[in-house]
Amino acid sequence: MSDRNLTLFDRAKAVIPGGVNSPVRAFKAVGGTPRFITRAQGAYLWDANGQRYIDYIGSWGPMILGHGHPEVLRAVQAAVQEGLSFGAPTEREIELVEEILRLVPSLEMVRLVNSGTEAGMSAIRLARGATGRPKIIKFEGCYHGHADALLVKAGSGLATFGHPTSAGVPPEVVQHTLVLEYNNVEQLEAAFAEHGAQIAALMIEPIAGNMNFVRASVPFMRRCRELCSQHGALLVFDEVMTGFRVALGGAQSLYAQAIPGFAPDMTVLGKVIGGGMPLAAFGGKRAVMEQLAPLGPVYQAGTLSGNPVATACGLATLRLIQQPGFFDALAARTRALVQGLQAEANRAGVPFSADCEGGMFGFFFLSELPRNYVQVMASDAARFNRFFHGMLQRGVYLAPALYEAGFVSAAHTDADIEATLTAARAVLAELT
Ligand code: KE4
After folding, report:
1. Ligand 1 mean position, distance from CA 147 (Å)
2. Could you give the CA distance from residue 40 to residue 46 in angstroms, rounded to a whole number?
3. Which residue in 109, 311, 314, 317 has the most C-beta neighbors within 10 A?
4. Domain check: are 126 and 171 in the same one?
């Protein structure tokens, strides 16, 4: 039988760079042919050959309810009947923002946009405009979208500013971006000691899903908060991935349990808040947010921002994840997956570590959980790639890169977890 995925990939590569509209989808890190998806339902995807997969990517986070939730589809179909886009304000944008404010108490105002990149880019511009300062701190291994100022890797050693990670980004565009090691308090202290008065914002993924799954330690996060407050810099939480995913209140609600009174100054959101449609957001305290056009001097805009169909999808999603017990059940199922994978790896004698929070998980072919980018990249990439393909052949669709996180949805059943662990047992046995 001909492989429809391969045929489609060849056709796609003729007209779309790399055959994909986002690089990670091309399977370059793991090799092989990407699966062209024809439909999805619940916890499952079907590819162009009709092969079914248990889906642990969930569109890279948005599909927390599973694919095709009937109440979400009903809300979207009703919105479509009223009109696709107006370029004018709607009540539903107010309803969605009011819902976000209720669930994320650190926020006083929010602006809706179309992607996490747009939200992160706008948050940085706003932080610089509101503080009048040029410099920003980010951490190696954290990804905040592809805005120029954020496509930067660590300079050689501390205090030297970042170097572009992408062609087309002139060095002067990233000259004010300082890249530090995640979880490194000493570097943080030194950076603020040297540049504190110039720092507009520190932007961080509180649980770094772009390093697969690395937690910011509580002591490290406490120092981020203290040093930002001490020097008048804004602490910006990039919760595009963790927001409404690791807990109903996002990662910030977990740090607020560990650090009394903890809250970021700004938050960037995406993925789950759109429920699979193009929708993201950034927000913060009123005094900062009112620096935005049309009120203030910081410009930001978007033709489809707050799109009426996307807001219907996001609002339905946010309402459904507030059902009693939703996150307890999701977290329990995710833990069952992660603990089961660890047990199977131990049984096979394969060095392995894993972690999870809410409906987000990560695993490493390392015996200890990594704490920063360098440690993550020391993972056994060849072993990861063999595991990835072994699972894919057995109908389990994991993230096609060792630095990406995984996601469980409310539609995943105990039987799906069991089937995944059965596949893992077979594949891990081949990896020893
Ligand atoms: P988008 O522009 O892709 O909507 O969001 C950018 C972004 C911002 N912040 C965080 C923490 C993110 O994880 C992302 C996007 N995540 C990637 C997966 N690592 C999306 C998948 C892709 O790039 O195709």
Report:
1. 11
2. 6
3. 314
4. yes
| Distance between CA atoms of residues 226 and 241, nearest Å | 24
Q: Each residue of 156-179: pLDDT tens digit? A: 554 456 678 889 999 899 999 999
Q: 121: domain range?
A: 70-322
Q: Using the atom order of ligand 1, give the atom closest to the CA of residue 278.
A: 4
Phi, psi of 101 (to 5 degrees): -65, -35
Residue 23 Cα to ligand 1 middle (Å)? 11
158 and 276 share one domain: yes
Which residue, chain included where needed, has tokens 């300082």?
178
- The amino acid that residue 143 corresponds to is Y
Residue 11 pLDDT exceeds 70: yes
Identify whether residues 279 and 154 lie together within a single domain.
yes
Task: Please give the angle made by the CA atoms of 216, 401 and 150, to the nearest 5 degrees.
Answer: 55
pLDDT value for 354 = 98
Average pLDDT, the chain: 96
CATH number (domain holding residue 397) = 3.90.1150.10
Q: Annotated catalytic sites, by residue?
A: 143, 238, 271
In this predicted structure, the answer to whether residue 148 has a pLDDT above a threshold of 50 is yes
Cα separation, 213 vs 215, in Å, equals 7
Q: How far is CA 360 from CA 213, 248, 281, 426, in A?
A: 8, 12, 20, 24
N- to C-terminal Cα distance for the chain? 32
